[in-house]
Amino acid sequence: MLLFEFRSFLLDGLLNTLLLSLVMIAGGTGFAIVFAAGLSLPSRWLSRPVFLIVECLRDIPLMVTVLLVYFVLPNIGISLDPFWSSALSVSVWGGANGAHIIRAGLASVPKGQWETVQAFGLGGWKGLLLVIVPQAMPVILPPYISLVTGLVQASSLGAVLGVNELLRSAQVLIEQTTISRGGSPAYLVYGAILVVYFVLCWTIALVGRRLEAHFTKPYSRDRHSIDRKDASSEVLVQTAPLDVRT
Amino acid sequence: MDFTYIIDALPDLMKGLKMTLMVSGLGILLSCIIGAIGAALRMSGFKPAEYLVTSYVEFIRGTPYLVQIFFIFYGLPSLGLRLSVFWSGVAALTVWASAFQIENFRAGLAAIGHGVHDASASLGLKRWHHALLVVLPLAARAALPSSMNTIVATVKNSAYLQAIGLVELTFVAVDRIAYDFRAIEMFFSICVIYLLCVFTLSGLGHVLERRLNRPFAGR
Fold first, then answer.
1. Over its length of 219 residues, how does chain B's per-residue pLDDT go in tens digits?
2. I need a surface site. Which of A27, A199, A208, B139 has the fewest CB within 10 A?
């Protein structure tokens, strides 16, 4: 069978997809934190431009962003190879989507929490990371996990620029076997790739659900005790899930 | 930036925009129809149909859109279904968007409370009158914001179709860059055009939303 015969070639592509996805997830998270910080700057003159950039990145098709970075950056003296070019463009897009997820998550934590943290003398980064962020996690995680699967799916865009990831190796495989053997079952190759991506995203969603359960655990224990019911329900106010815009 | 070059390229870009709008218009129309049917099937209570629709939605949402396009354009001919570039594009957009529309419409239907059914029954409305005159307006109002998002995303996702050689806006831009190397001008213009499309559509969505909310506003 064709797929079995070229398994090492396809596996190479899968490894590159995983690598590219990891770079995109890391980069996207980084940009998301930067953009979220930019959105919550105290001065309107500083936060407005960030908002404008984020909104443009969300509203321009991802395909255009990827091609734009690849074609326009060399004009201003930055030449990136296809791998880093697609990694950068998808990361920036992921950051724009992630910024709103993080901002909404932090906003869902009641203000009193922050005041309490400061009253305990835990202001600044320590209070944010140890008290506020864990409480924001139940709100951040569900849309963030779907963003992560979106980033894994977006790694297939690397094929357009010629990165040797899974989709590209499928294309090469079909081309090569068509030339050497006069025809190859394209539906089989692309179908197999679809299944591989689906399994990948399914696994991420499963891990995400586990992680979610971990962060909601402290509140679910309270749900059964009557006297602290109001306190727990206040923390678990869910905002409408933010959509990831392709 | 050379604006005379952009003006010179404008006729080509308009041709591309026309193709973009045609493909995405057909995709939006078909995906709304399939979305409504799928949502109805999913709420029907007939278990096999429910599982089928749910797995369709999960599979489409769990796989990259670009691979779906390649599967439809390059894969289906060897299974005996040969579509032109245009109809492959429409099919790809429809398949992708209908998965999301099924979810949107299902959520819209689920948002209608049980009291509505009781109220219709007590007014003596027939089943079809109940579905058309009571459930549909309420469900449309609940599903509008999220399905508007999907509609906007459908227009944006038509840009992916340049990968199979459909001559739409992005393809025109990349094609001209290959000849003239005016990347900055071309990308600036298509970004502006895409943003205008997106803002127009979401503006229309807001107007419609306000119109559908009118019976519920005030008093």
1. 788 888 888 899 999 999 999 999 999 999 999 999 999 898 888 899 999 999 999 999 999 999 999 999 998 888 888 889 999 999 999 999 999 999 999 999 888 877 888 888 888 888 888 888 888 888 888 899 899 999 999 999 999 999 999 999 999 999 999 888 888 889 999 999 999 999 999 999 999 988 888 877 765
2. A199
Sign of CA dihedral A119, A125, A126, A131: positive
Domains of chain B, earliest start first: 3-214 (1.10.3720.10)
- Give the start-end residues of each E strand in chain A: none
> Would you state the structure tokens that stand for residue B96, as one six-digit string?
């992708």
Yes or no: say if B198 and B155 are a contact pair by the CB < 8 Å rule.
yes
For A132-168, give the DSSP string. Answer: IHHHHHHHHHHHHHHHHHHHHHHGGGHHHHT--SHHH
Q: What's A45's DSSP letter?
A: H
Q: Note whether A63 contacts B160, CB cutoff 8 Å.
A: yes
Residues shown for chain B: 219
Buried b (16+ CB within 10 A) or exposed e, A173-190: bbeebeeeeeebbbbbbb
Domains in chain A (CATH in brackets) are: 1-110+120-237 (1.10.3720.10)
Contact between chains at A59 and B159 (C-beta distance less than 8 A):
no
Which of A21, A198, A73 is closest to B187 using CA atoms? Answer: A73
Interface of A to B at Cβ within 8 Å reads 56, 59-64, 67-68, 71-72, 74-75, 149, 153-157, 159-160, 167, 170-171, 174, 183, 185-191, 193-194, 197-198, 201-202, 205, 243, 245-246
- A68, A153, A156 member nearest B187 (Cβ): A68
